[in-house]
């Protein structure tokens, strides 16, 4: 394109030449010559064990430009930081997993993606290796600057400043992904010009004990110690960190919700000690869920008032920090099964006979579970409202996850219409989730479960099944019923888009169109941090999906969001025809 400006020879463009080397050194950027089908030059690369100092380039440009960055996923896990002089925080940039979408290996293709639009007058760009909690490489092949016309600039600024567009709901994963508030503010900064209006950030609280194991214990997962230490440090500082983050979100026209995982278990990976323990769980086996045969399940039951009160007190902490709402994430674990409080309530309403033989989709069992969860949510609502009244503040909103379809959720007691009619929820996040019971071959002639057959089936097959996937057809299938409930009771509805970092960028536009065509009101984006906003191609396709009117006019063409470019040579080695590591 005429007047575009490209930096592709970083060995010449970098100001701090002393931070460069033609070899791979622990404290330098390695410079490697390359040739692609479009651009040639000398790239910067840092290995997963090197810690090079930041370097700077000075394009000396005037006016507004679209800035594109080209990277490759060679060696895997590439993360690089780019920081314009005027940026409040740097951008962590990562390429897509190229080999997922093409037959090419990561060493055979580079990916060019849009970084941002910016006024480049007087600006320099600092390039750093991202500091994060896992080993990774960093590389950059080129920066390309494409000038914007006056109209393009005016249109971009009008879109950026239109806060009415901020209708999407974004989730950020647990606190072990960052050890300070600055990293989270960095993610909020990355989302501030997007259509995201509400951010759910999973929080730490006093529910979990961040205890270390005695030496010489060696955890089977290599990053266990690091995760524990991150969460411990964050937990100790949360009283100073959370209010600052909430204020920062408000400054950027976003609301910040506290995300709470609602399962109560000292969760462990297979064969592993629990990564984080929940003392209340370990101290109260009498509150555990029970399977049909009376055996303990490693989750506490919301059928016990003591469990409900314990969780409500932890959720109340969100109000004390000043969050705008809470997001109740019910998408893992169990919450009510066949324990005594459920049985007693069932017996009082329907009689005790055959309780343990009822399949999970039995309407009577669903009724009892949803009745218990409704009462729990009513107590939570009352507690949050009473706190707000004492403080003279606005009560926190309550959002909760739901499954693919309304009917899917009923099996776990999630009767969304019952909750909405009782006034205990303000919003639904339609998640990509379904749990069901496979009773094929385990039923008796009377239509109830044969407990012996059920137990035998469990020895060789899954009985409780779980679908947690980017099944957009199921999202679309479930939308009409959710939309009807949302409209009837005036609550918010967000439907999850595709899994993060799992599809070509253009797929997110296609699935957004399908959601809106089925009657979707808003989009939800799971794992925006640390995954989605860092994958620049995906974020370019996702950041502006908040309004159906403009989404239907958006292109599905891949090169609008990321461009794949063939590598012809690395370091002088010809790869056009005969790649020595070719897997073809």
Concise overview:
By secondary structure, this protein is α/β, with parallel strands linked by helices.
Give the key terms.
10-stranded mixed β-sheet; Jelly Rolls; 26 strands; 16 helices; alpha/beta; 584 residues; 2 domains; globular
Description:
Helix 4 crosses helix 5 (224-251) and helix 7 runs parallel beside helix 9 (363-391). The protein is an alpha/beta fold. The protein folds into 2 domains: 5-159 and 561-574, Jelly Rolls (Sandwich); 168-333 and 384-433 and 469-546, Aldolase class I (TIM Barrel), CATH 3.20.20. The strands form 5 sheets. Strands 1, 2, 3, 4, 6, 9, 11, 12, 25 and 26 form a 10-stranded mixed β-sheet that branches. Strands 13-14-15-18-19-20-23-24 form an 8-stranded parallel β-barrel, surrounded by 4 helices. The chain is built from 16 helices and 26 strands. The mean pLDDT is 90.
Radius of gyration from the CA trace? 26 Å
CATH class of the largest domain: Alpha Beta
> What's the main sheet like?
10 strands, mixed
- Strand fraction: 15-25%
- Global outline: globular
Overall mean pLDDT score? 90
Strand runs, count: 26
Distance between the termini: 33 Å
From the 3D coordinates, which CATH architecture of the largest domain would you assign?
Alpha-Beta Barrel
Query: Do you know the CATH topology of the largest domain?
Result: TIM Barrel
Q: What structural category arises from helix and sheet content?
A: alpha/beta
Q: How many individual helices?
A: 16
CATH superfamily of the largest domain: Aldolase class I
Count of the separate structural domains: 2
């Amino acid at each position: 394109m005429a007047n575009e400006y490209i930096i592709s020879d970083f060995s010449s463009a970098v100001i701090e030449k002393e931070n460069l080397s033609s070899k791979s050194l622990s404290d330098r950027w390695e410079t490697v010559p390359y040739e692609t089908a479009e651009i040639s030059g000398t790239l910067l690369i840092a290995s997963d064990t090197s810690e090079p100092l930041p370097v700077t380039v000075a394009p000396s440009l005037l006016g507004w430009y679209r800035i594109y960055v080209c990277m490759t996923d060679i060696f895997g896990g590439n993360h690089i930081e780019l920081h314009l002089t005027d940026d409040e925080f740097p951008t962590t940039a990562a390429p897509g997993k190229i080999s997922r979408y093409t037959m090419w290996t990561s060493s055979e293709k580079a990916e060019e993606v849009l970084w941002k639009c910016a006024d480049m007058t007087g600006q320099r760009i600092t390039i750093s290796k991202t500091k994060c909690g896992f080993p990774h490489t960093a590389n950059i092949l080129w920066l390309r600057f494409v000038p914007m016309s006056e109209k393009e600039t005016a249109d971009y600024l009008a879109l950026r400043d239109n806060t009415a567009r901020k209708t999407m709901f974004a989730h950020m994963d647990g606190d072990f992904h960052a050890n300070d508030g600055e990293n989270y503010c960095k993610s909020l900064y990355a989302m501030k010009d997007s259509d995201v209006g509400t951010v759910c950030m999973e929080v730490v609280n006093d529910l979990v004990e961040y205890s270390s194991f005695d030496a010489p214990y060696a955890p089977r997962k290599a990053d266990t110690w690091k995760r524990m230490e991150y969460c411990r440090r964050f937990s100790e500082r949360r009283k100073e960190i959370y209010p600052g983050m909430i204020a920062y979100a408000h400054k950027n026209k976003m609301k910040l919700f506290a995300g709470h995982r609602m399962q109560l278990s000292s969760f462990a990976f297979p064969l592993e000690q629990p990564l984080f323990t929940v003392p209340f769980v370990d101290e109260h086996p009498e509150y555990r869920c029970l399977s049909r045969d009376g055996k303990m399940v490693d989750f506490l039951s919301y059928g016990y008032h003591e469990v409900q009160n314990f969780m409500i007190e932890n959720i109340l902490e969100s109000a004390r920090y000043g969050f705008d709402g809470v997001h109740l994430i019910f998408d893992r674990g169990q919450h009510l099964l066949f324990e005594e409080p459920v049985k007693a309530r069932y017996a009082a309403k329907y009689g005790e006979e055959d309780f343990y033989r009822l399949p999970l989709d039995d309407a009577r069992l669903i009724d009892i579970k949803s009745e218990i969860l409704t009462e729990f949510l009513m107590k939570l609502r009352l507690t949050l409202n009473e706190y707000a009244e004492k403080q003279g503040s606005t009560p926190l909103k309550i959002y909760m996850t739901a499954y693919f379809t309304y009917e899917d959720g009923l099996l776990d007691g999630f009767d969304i219409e019952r909750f909405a009619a009782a006034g205990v929820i303000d919003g639904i996040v339609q998640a990509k989730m379904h749990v069901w019971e496979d009773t094929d071959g385990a039923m008796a002639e009377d239509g109830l479960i044969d407990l012996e057959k059920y137990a035998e089936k469990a020895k060789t097959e899954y009985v409780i099944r779980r679908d947690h996937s980017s099944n957009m057809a199921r999202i679309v299938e479930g939308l009409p019923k959710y939309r009807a409930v949302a409209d009837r009771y005036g609550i918010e509805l967000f439907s999850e888009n595709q899994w993060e970092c799992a599809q070509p960028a253009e797929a997110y536009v296609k699935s957004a169109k399908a959601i809106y065509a089925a009657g979707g009101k808003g989009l939800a984006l799971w794992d925006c941090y640390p995954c989605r906003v860092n994958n620049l191609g995906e974020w370019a396709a996702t950041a502006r999906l908040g309004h159906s009117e403009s989404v239907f006019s958006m292109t599905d063409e891949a090169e609008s969001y990321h461009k794949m470019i063939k590598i012809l040579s690395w370091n002088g080695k010809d790869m056009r025809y005969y790649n020595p590591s070719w897997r073809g």
